[in-house]
Structures are given as C-alpha cells and as structure tokens.
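[job 4471] stage=fold_predict status=RUNNING
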Amino acid sequence: MTTPGKSRRMRQMFNADTGIMLCIPIDHGMQVGAIDGLSDPDRLIGEIADGGADSIIVNPGLMRRYHKQLERIPSVILRMDQTTMWRTGGPFGYETTYTRLVSDVNAAVQLGAEAVITYLFTCNLDPAEETRCFEINGEISKQCEANGIVHVVEAMAANGGHARADDPEVVLMNCRIASELGADIVKTDWCGAEGIAKVVQNSLAPIAIAGGGKSGSLDELTDVVRAGVDSGARGFMFGRNTFQRSDVRKTVQALRDTIVSGSR
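[job 4471] inference complete, writing structure tokens
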C-alpha cells in the first residue's frame, strides 16, 4: 500500500497539468567523472529550473553543495548507487559492469529529496553482479517503504553483457521485473514507440524514458518525446541530450512544450 508520504511526493514529481514528469539527470559525475556540460552546476541547475523541469537527478555531494539552487525545481531524485557501467569498454573501464551502494534513504530524507534512484542491470556476463543489483534494489525498496520516499528504478541491460539495451523484449522483461520488485517509477531505454507501448501495458509502475547520449537534432529529440507520450510514457529523463546542448534552457523548454502539446 502506498503511504501518505510517498503519495504526496509522487504527486509533486509529476506535472499537475499534464500528469507527465520532465526530469533532467545530472548525476553522471559520480559514474564517469568530469564530462562536458557539468563544469558549472550552479549555472546549469538555474537553466534547468528556468526551462521548467519538474525534477532533477543528483548525487549526494552535489545536493549538499547546491541545495539552495535545487529548491527552484519542484522535486529532487537522489542517486543511491555508483556503477562502472558507463566506463565499460573504455580506457578506465572493465569488461563487465560492477555496481555498489554508496548512500541510503536516511541521507535522502535528511537532504530533503522526494525520491531516490537505483540501477537494476540485467543480462550481465557475471550473474553475481546481476544478483548484487537485485540485493541493492531490495534493500533500498524496504528503506523507501519505511520512510515514505519514492523509489525510481533504472532498469537496463548491462554494458558488456549478453543483451542489447534497446531490444524491446529485454526492455519489457527489465521493466516488469523492476515493477515487481516494488519500483514506484521505472526509468528505461527507448525501444521504439511500439516497444514502449507494450512495456507501459505490462509494467506495474509508470514508465520514464531515458535519453541516452547526446545525439541528433532538437527536433529529433522532441519527436521521441511526442512518440513516447503517444505510447503512454509518464516521464522523460533526458540528461546529456539536454545539458550538453548549446542552450540548456531552450532545450528543456522545448521538451516541456512538446509534452504539453502531446498530452492534450
């Protein structure tokens, strides 16, 4: 049963007019270090707020340092874990994905977050690493229930594993598993309009689409948002595809406007 605290926080995360959440993740620094677009968090958070985002994903260190600026955004999602997933195959990575817990829900409560987020990677070459993700999610889910905090699960196929992240059947499997584990919101990869429609139909929790790496034009990005809205997605979590563009505020505004027009 959803607690009153969790219900109130969920309502705060989704836009009151559209029922859809536009979230901008800027939690990449704890996963890969310094990347383009994240060198000035104070300015970036301001541009995201000015663009009209409903939510933002941050790491504990960033939230402690920029909590006053973050008050301009309706809801904050705090990252609970760290992974080598995004370094797989690179000079500082490993052959497979490793993930570990680095915070807990008590910290999220103290910092004032509305939600927390954890990874759920499947199809890893090492079954023990998939098991570790399940253990992390089970523990955080229990903590969220005890504290009335929203739990977002980022469910994806592991880099260096034996499945493609954009395979509709893999996305379907991962989202159903994540929602069965108790996720309040599931973040996952775009797998086409038809694939996402099937995922939405079979998930027990609202589906939010991940943006992936910066690619294509802004028009192409808004096309994905429009197709996602039509397919029943309840959220869009676009990080690098937003903060690595030349005008962050304009990009966030365009995404928000697309959601508004698509939800009418």
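[job 4471] summary: DSSP finds twelve helices and ten strands in the chain.
[job 4471] exit 0
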